[in-house]
């Protein structure tokens, strides 16, 4: 037992004492006990390679010694100030964070979760523009509080109560499952197997998806200004969906023509994860008006941020704005150390190199197995979509996904799941993984896929 609680007891207590809405991964769920860098250990002492990082959150490694030391030192001095007093940590951190952002993105608001950050970004955009309508993408995930759940376009996250009004979802520019697009439409070392008619530099699919956005303006918002357009740089919860090339740039231009602000949700794609840039939006050659960050920003410590321009930030002085824990000294000590480690340990280079290797190896799995419909992503933000056949692209049933998922876990590999039909494996590990870890991940997935094929053939 741990803390006087046995594994079986924990399962029972979870049903009785915790929210019934909590879902657990695995038929025999993992009870975690310890973590170190890319590794986690369960209550029996079994070690797993963690290729999901607590949902893309443990950016530089579980219990990274430097992060832990920074947190410990700060905890021994002062935990909490609230921002009604000054503390040097928050100033040092805000400066360091904004140094890493382009353009005039210079003002930080700290909070504690991604949902809070996007909620605040919605408020700011409405105050700044005086408009109230917001557009986001189908299949997007931006949070689960009262306002942000409205931004989400993933059906499984929708409750049967009215959301806030004024949110419009435009067609997702998905080159694999969407109406248009195919090979070369997305920015990934792995192309889709679907052909497309794009010329070298002109993505036809993008123009078609942009027309859909235009239709929202035409039919739902005639003559109306909008407050904001929200988008992830690669959709995370939605199943690592990359957009057709040039889509975000054109969408941003169109939204700005309507007086709206462009918000990049970097909760999953920020902090060098895509390997080529510090921020996911830079892959799309855009500079947003507001950037929201969470998860990897704190390596697992509750920390989130909204960064914007001085001009937009002023809107919040209209009334009192306050967040009790936002930017507390311990969170800032952690956040600041995470930024140092990303530079010192050359994580951008690692994400790029290991990410390419991993994607190459996973693409081989796609060619070997009929059930692997698509492999996509950039850097260490990867998706593997499982289908009943490459031709139909029908999602592999959830029970089959779960069997493969369980098999991977039994072999010591933790990955994630997502997508509208829950049929995309998500690989988003701590950024410190090595090539040997990537090879282990692919070997386990290959074995789990062949086990599945064998089971279904019998
Ligand atoms: N935005 C994105 C892109 C996310 O993936 C998430 C969390 N999955 C959120 C926002 C919300 O973050 P949180 O769970 O910290 O509220």
From TrEMBL:
Catalytic activity, EC: 2.6.1.18, 2.6.1.40, 2.6.1.44
Protein location: Mitochondrion
InterPro entries tied to this protein: Aminotrans_3, Aminotrans_3_PPA_site, PyrdxlP-dep_Trfase, PyrdxlP-dep_Trfase_major, PyrdxlP-dep_Trfase_small
Catalytic activity annotation: N(omega),N(omega)-dimethyl-L-arginine + glyoxylate = 5-(3,3-dimethylguanidino)-2-oxopentanoate + glycine; L-ornithine + glyoxylate = 5-amino-2-oxopentanoate + glycine; oxaloacetate + L-alanine = L-aspartate + pyruvate; N(omega),N(omega)-dimethyl-L-arginine + 2-oxobutanoate = 5-(3,3-dimethylguanidino)-2-oxopentanoate + (2S)-2-aminobutanoate
Keyword RNA-binding: no
Organism phylogeny: Eukaryota, Metazoa, Ecdysozoa, Arthropoda, Chelicerata
Family according to the record: Belongs to the class-III pyridoxal-phosphate-dependent aminotransferase family.
Broad class of enzyme this protein falls into: transferase
PANTHER family, sorted: ALANINE--GLYOXYLATE AMINOTRANSFERASE 2, MITOCHONDRIAL, PTHR45688
Keyword Transferase: yes
Protein known as: Alanine--glyoxylate aminotransferase 2, mitochondrial
Annotated keywords: Aminotransferase, Mitochondrion, Pyridoxal phosphate, Transferase, Transit peptide
Principal subcellular localization: mitochondrion
Record's function text: Multifunctional aminotransferase with a broad substrate specificity. Catalyzes the conversion of glyoxylate to glycine using alanine as the amino donor. Catalyzes metabolism of not L- but the D-isomer of D-beta-aminoisobutyric acid to generate 2-methyl-3-oxopropanoate and alanine. Catalyzes the transfer of the amino group from beta-alanine to pyruvate to yield L-alanine and 3-oxopropanoate. Can metabolize NG-monomethyl-L-arginine (NMMA), asymmetric NG,NG-dimethyl-L-arginine (ADMA) and symmetric NG,N'G-dimethyl-L-arginine (SDMA).
Subunit-level organization: Homotetramer.
Pfam families: Aminotran_3
Source organism: Limulus polyphemus
Cofactor(s) named in the record: pyridoxal 5'-phosphate
